[in-house]
Amino acid sequence: MTTSDRFLLLMREEGFNQTTFGEKTGYSRSSLSNFLNGNVKLPKIDLLAAVALNLPHWNLRWILLGTGEMFFTPGMEIIATPNSLQSIPAKDLEIEKLKLDIERLENTVKDKEEIIGLLREKVVK
User: Fold this and answer.
1) Which of 75, 13, 3, 69 is nearest to 36 (CA)?
2) Residue 10 and residue 70 in contact, taking contact as beta carbons nearer than 8 Å
3) Cα–Cα distance between 52 and 86 in angstroms, integer?
4) What confidence score (pLDDT) does residue 74 get?
5) C-alpha distances in angstroms, 86 versus 21, 68, 79, 100, 113?
6) Considering only CA atoms, which of 77, 4, 88, 18 is closest in space to residue 53?
7) CB-based contact 57:71 (threshold 8 Å)
8) Which phi-psi region, left, alpha or beta, contains residue 43 (left: φ > 0; alpha: ψ -120 to 50)?
9) Global pTM?
10) How far is it, in rounded angstroms, from Cα 60 to Cα 74?
11) 1-86 sits in which CATH class?
12) What angle do CA 110, 116, 109 make, to 5 degrees?
């Protein structure tokens, strides 16, 4: 059984489809689809972080290695909890990407404004 097979099995056990999984975890449906369809062989760290933060009863060791139980049960040692993973920068990375997009767009606007200014000067002359 592959990693994506185990992941899909967990999703089915929880009653998730790709859309409802995305709604629960905030993870992109298209990225999840690429993983589940085999386009990406191993899950990305942001997918694992989304699982650890939003579905802490899912056993990441079982997902990745196929060892242990699918789910953590009371009394089992949990590898990670939402509090211990708050430093994972999945959302911070997305924020940084958006900030870069904003900066790029602001620079584009400045460039366009300069061009408009130059064109206005030519029209006045």
Assistant:
1) 3
2) yes
3) 10
4) 61
5) 20, 25, 14, 23, 41
6) 88
7) yes
8) beta
9) 0.58
10) 16
11) mainly alpha
12) 20
* Domain limits, the chain: 1-86, 89-125
Residue 115 tokens read as: 């061009």
Residue in the block written with tokens 């920068």: 89
Other Cβ atoms closer than 10 A to 72: 18
The residue with tokens 């064109």 is 119
pLDDT (tens place) for every residue of the chain, 125 residues total: 889 999 999 999 999 999 999 999 999 999 999 999 888 888 999 999 999 999 989 999 899 988 888 887 765 555 455 554 444 445 665 776 777 778 878 888 888 898 898 888 888 87
Which amino acid is present at 106? E
Backbone angles phi, psi at 97, to 5 degrees: -60, -45
CA distance 3 to 12: 14
What distance in Å separates the CA atoms of residue 27 and residue 93, rounded to the nearest whole number?
Answer: 13
Q: What is the pLDDT of residue 10?
A: 93
**Is 35 within 8 Å of 4 (Cβ atoms)?**
yes
